[in-house]
Amino acid sequence: MTSLHYFWHSALNFVFFYPLFMSYLWMIGALIFYRKERKEPPYQEPAALSSYPKVAVLVPCYNEGDNAEETLTHALALQYPNFEVIAINDGSSDNTAEVLDRLAEKHEKLRVVHLAQNQGKAMGLQAGSLLTDAEFLLGIDGDALLDPHAATWMVRHFLEDETVAAVTGNPRIRTRSTLIGRIQVGEFSSIVGMIKRAQRSFGRLFTVSGVITAFRKTAVHEVGYWSPDMLTEDIDITWKLQRAGWDIRFEPNALVWILMPETFNGLWKQRLRWAMGGAQVLIKNIDVLVKPKLNFLWPLMIELILTLVWSYLMLIMTIIWLLHFIIPIHGIMGEGISSPFLPYGSGILLGATCLIQFALSKWMDSRYEPNLFKNYYWMIWYPFVFWLITVTASIIAFPKVLLRGDGKRARWVSPDRGVRIND
């Protein structure tokens, strides 16, 4: 076997077995987490707390004139005895300011802050946090519908343990009018929810969900608040808090209903931003690998690096495989290799693993959406649609971040959002 042939087969095995290994690791970790989760009361009936410290619901809004009233109406319906809602108009150019001011006249629990120009979500969150005397901040997006019991489920973690800096909730998808929307319903269960359960079982979270996370203001202040130059402020604040020694938890009973892109263009913009945010965090935090005191973050960093390597390896192998049909490259792929991605006969194993993961995740999340299994059929398209987009975004994101430079303010506009379904 030549060295090139050996490299090809080693790379082939890594490309195939790495996602397979991670899938089973996620399933095992999620099941460990679920052993306790399934013993909880229904999410509509949270246990009473020993006390109810004040909570400030922060809602940064940029051009959310069409969604702000619905979002704030749900936030103001929070079934928690001690809270206020702060809406931050982040220099919107539409009618967001008028909508917010009109609502503030009707609701004494609602306060409105107007920023003169668009500063980005990170600065919006910081502005809101500085205007409240509440120790606990619950951040949601300007188009998100908060479940009435979310604050109670999240605050209990802060009362249980003073080292908890943040509690991230459980986003549920409202947009389901297209194939992309239906697939994302399954994705947030089989991928996002399962990974958070597994990561929490094994120690640390890679990121909180920007659409619903509660923070201890003392901890956020200690690490310098959210970074205005990071494209994904939620990933960045997660790493800042954990590096400082704070704990972060996942609370699946804290629900929020969100809108997601339902076109390829909107999905691509979203996933590219996510990938660029991940690349920024990798570059910013790569030093944890040489700091033994931060060894609890090594698994997350190693996974992030391996995922990036996996994406580029997929690109390299695809190019070599395509070139092989134009200019035969002897001694690399060997005999009997018809695909650059799957060892012979392994397609069945990969497909079965995907189906098992999707079924397991939907079973766990059926506590929150009883009819979730009706989207199971659509998940067969996930590997074809989302893997391609995710791999491509990861490949493009890293050089874009390197070229972007440091210190540039991160501003973004929500991509297209589909038809709202509130079932």
From TrEMBL:
<dbReference type="GO" id="GO:0008375">
    <property type="term" value="F:acetylglucosaminyltransferase activity"/>
</dbReference>
<keyword id="KW-0812">Transmembrane</keyword>
<dbReference type="InterPro" id="IPR029044">
    <property type="entry name" value="Nucleotide-diphossugar_trans"/>
</dbReference>
<protein>
    <recommendedName>
        <fullName>Poly-beta-1,6-N-acetyl-D-glucosamine synthase</fullName>
        <ecNumber>2.4.1.-</ecNumber>
    </recommendedName>
</protein>
<keyword id="KW-1003">Cell membrane</keyword>
<dbReference type="GO" id="GO:0043708">
    <property type="term" value="P:cell adhesion involved in biofilm formation"/>
</dbReference>
<feature type="transmembrane region" description="Helical">
    <location>
        <begin position="6"/>
        <end position="34"/>
    </location>
</feature>
<keyword id="KW-1133">Transmembrane helix</keyword>
<feature type="transmembrane region" description="Helical">
    <location>
        <begin position="341"/>
        <end position="360"/>
    </location>
</feature>
<keyword id="KW-0472">Membrane</keyword>
<dbReference type="GO" id="GO:0005886">
    <property type="term" value="C:plasma membrane"/>
</dbReference>
<comment type="similarity">
    <text>Belongs to the glycosyltransferase 2 family.</text>
</comment>
<feature type="transmembrane region" description="Helical">
    <location>
        <begin position="296"/>
        <end position="329"/>
    </location>
</feature>
<keyword id="KW-0808">Transferase</keyword>
<keyword id="KW-0328">Glycosyltransferase</keyword>
<dbReference type="InterPro" id="IPR023853">
    <property type="entry name" value="PGA_PgaC/IcaA"/>
</dbReference>
<dbReference type="Pfam" id="PF13641">
    <property type="entry name" value="Glyco_tranf_2_3"/>
</dbReference>
<feature type="transmembrane region" description="Helical">
    <location>
        <begin position="380"/>
        <end position="403"/>
    </location>
</feature>
